[in-house]
């Protein structure tokens, strides 16, 4: 099942519910891709990213990418693309003060985003889930859809500030270019962990992928994100286990294996310590 809506201002929404999909294309607009159930694998500039319900991916205009869905159960996805006029006007409004805007000055600058995975939570999640709900009901009101898309961009800029700008400030390097390069490599490390979280990955694997030494990775990762790569991996596994307990009928043992734990008892202990409830009690509470 596929829903495609292109607005008069060239903004576009594509909602899809499928078990199998493969496509490769040149991205003509800025696009944000979401997954509500299952996973979608994207290859962007030779980097493989797996998008799960706790993350979203951002693609710049002109990016060549491929995407693949291969699942036993249907994967529910949504992509929102922004026309050049809409995103240029938004970036101009967001980046300049009121005096500049009231003088009717214009800038043709368009943003260049860091193409990566970002956390799908908070206001962004609230807004996009509302948009998805409206689309599922057959929404055709362009004014309302554009308002949702405006808030989608607004929330992304806030997330970008938190995940990029604030993280740059935390890195203890003097030169801005050095900070930017280190954060770029740390972003690769996070992508690798997020896309391979259920595999037996090592610090050496992560460091090699990010082109950092192990000790450099450990120091700078902790500086930027205030947790270690191992702690980030454990948080990811537990949160994705929580999602599977909430949305699927998999048994506990199946979920333990799916999220990369080797021992059920250690998973149960970590889950209870983190969420103050056992996995089975959590599953029952969500069912009720």
UniProtKB/TrEMBL annotation:
<dbReference type="InterPro" id="IPR018060">
    <property type="entry name" value="HTH_AraC"/>
</dbReference>
<dbReference type="Pfam" id="PF12833">
    <property type="entry name" value="HTH_18"/>
</dbReference>
<dbReference type="GO" id="GO:0003700">
    <property type="term" value="F:DNA-binding transcription factor activity"/>
</dbReference>
<protein>
    <submittedName>
        <fullName>AraC family transcriptional regulator</fullName>
    </submittedName>
</protein>
<keyword id="KW-0805">Transcription regulation</keyword>
<keyword id="KW-0804">Transcription</keyword>
<keyword id="KW-0238">DNA-binding</keyword>
<dbReference type="InterPro" id="IPR009057">
    <property type="entry name" value="Homeodomain-like_sf"/>
</dbReference>
<dbReference type="GO" id="GO:0043565">
    <property type="term" value="F:sequence-specific DNA binding"/>
</dbReference>
<feature type="domain" description="HTH araC/xylS-type">
    <location>
        <begin position="187"/>
        <end position="285"/>
    </location>
</feature>
